[in-house]
Specification:
Length: about 475
């Protein structure tokens, strides 16, 4: 089934690439979203769920959950991109949307891949699609960011490939399917297993935006148009998380699993440190939101490292972060139309310029900082509870101290945007409040999850978190 949809999606992206008018681009994007709706219906209502398509793709709980999130966020990103790029030349316009559609397609493939090599190939495909989106503005800064993105991501993927080779050597099995590797990995050479996990984690960290290769994700979000940055910081980050999580689960019944959990704790704490420290230093709102992503993915890594209920909380944290962070990036896209920039030290008085957008940013601030009724409060409280239960007092204290820095930095910067005197040129005629309302609706979805987690969602996450 999925091969037919892959062919359709690629053909639509190709047609978008050669479109001669904006109207044709919009028709292609609408058709693309309609085919994803058809795919979702086939998946959820017509018997596709929990089946295998061909040899390399399985519609399991994890892939399906993250695909639904991707479908929702992608719809918002495409709609907001139409307005964000309304003044672009048709040549740049059609290339952007063509690459955006291909990126969404590649991410979809990552979610459903049941083969570690296919996951690796599709993650590298996201690098190529993302690089073209980064270079959209054709400026010196975006050219530099594009080459850095290609080099670092390709290096990271190459490092992950070495890890995959070691993993297969340790498993002494010709198959690359996750389920088949898992059945024989328990008897693998511990040294090979440790080295393989470190290499894969290091390589895929460029996609999940955690330490050590987090910097390239920050640069990518800075260079890409803001709506696309919303997709990169959620859909693509989720692809990196799921790729790492599938490998993490392979080690659940091996002798080195406790060691791997310690590695995840260290990576999580370092990512949280990076996010906390750089949130205060950056002077660009897109970089600012990107470091917030590093911080939140660090918390998810800590959840995996602490184990127990922390694994459930990590998955729930990533799910809710998808709605919150995409909403904030879309709100910042509206801010850019008003001020024609993202400079933190110059922008202000947004509450009087676009009240709806300012409310969306302030509510997003509350949500991303995990204040009730944010769903991130639920996940972070569960992780902290498990941390105390496991006797990791040093970790809990470190997390609380770093989170205090995060709270101060985010509150200080976003409140400045809304209330400090403005020092930049205004373009109030460009305000589209419908986009602010649209982005706010994603936050409302997240806050609903803070109050009420549906039973089907709980059951799906229970299944995914079972090691």
């Amino acid at each position: 089934m999925i091969y037919i949809f892959f062919a359709i999606w690629i053909l639509i992206a190709a047609a978008t690439f050669i479109a001669r008018s904006r109207r044709t681009v919009h028709i292609m994007c609408g058709l693309y979203l309609a085919t994803h709706l058809a795919f979702a219906v086939k998946l959820l209502a017509l018997g596709g769920y929990l089946t295998t398509s061909g040899e390399f793709f399985t519609f399991d709980q994890a892939g399906t959950l993250f695909y639904i999130l991707l479908a929702v966020v992608s719809t918002y990103v495409i709609v907001h991109s139409v307005e964000y790029l309304k003044d672009d030349k048709i040549e740049n316009y059609r290339v952007y949307f063509s690459l955006l559609l291909l990126l969404i397609t590649a991410i979809t493939g990552v979610y459903f891949a049941n083969n570690i090599a296919i996951t690796w190939i599709l993650l590298e495909t996201t690098t190529l699609c993302g690089a073209g989106i980064l270079y959209h503005r054709h400026s010196k800064d975006t050219l530099e960011a594009t080459w850095k993105y290609l080099f670092v991501c390709s290096t990271g993927i190459a490092i992950a490939y070495l890890g995959i080779l070691l993993l297969c050597a340790a498993a002494s099995n010709g198959s690359l399917r996750y389920d088949e590797i898992a059945t024989i990995l328990a008897n693998g050479n511990p040294l090979y297993l440790k080295a393989a996990f470190l290499l894969i984690l290091t390589g895929y960290s460029c996609k999940m935006e955690i330490f050590p290769l987090y910097t390239i994700g920050v640069d990518a979000n800075f260079a890409a148009p803001a709506p696309a940055a919303g997709l990169i910081s959620t859909g693509l980050v989720n692809a990196g998380f799921l790729a790492i999580f599938r490998v993490y689960k392979l080690f659940a019944h091996t002798a080195v699993f406790e060691w791997i959990q310690h590695v995840m704790l260290i990576i999580g704490v370092l990512s949280l440190c990076v996010g906390a420290l750089f949130l205060r230093r950056t002077n660009n709102y897109k970089r600012f939101l990107s470091y917030s992503t590093v911080e939140n993915m660090g918390i998810a890594a800590i959840g995996l490292g602490i184990g127990g209920i922390g694994v459930w909380a990590a998955i729930f944290h990533v799910v809710c972060h998808t709605f919150i962070k995409s909403s904030l990036f879309l709100q910042i896209a509206v801010v850019r139309h008003v001020y024609n920039g993202y400079r933190i030290n110059r922008l202000g008085d947004y509450i009087n310029i676009n009240k709806v957008g300012a409310i969306g940013i302030m509510v997003g601030m509350v949500a991303v900082l995990a204040f009730p009724p944010s769903p991130l409060f639920v996940s972070e409280l569960m992780i902290l509870t498990q941390t105390f239960a496991g006797g990791h007092w040093w970790l809990a204290i470190a997390m609380l101290l770093l989170l205090c820095i995060v709270i101060y930095s985010i509150c200080y910067r976003l409140i400045k945007l809304c209330y400090q005197p403005n020092q930049d040129e205004l373009h109030t005629s460009n305000i589209n409040r419908r986009l602010s309302y649209s982005a706010l609706s994603l936050l409302i979805l997240a806050i609903i999850l803070g109050f009420w987690q549906p039973e089907p969602l709980k059951e799906i996450i229970d299944t995914i978190a079972t090691l």
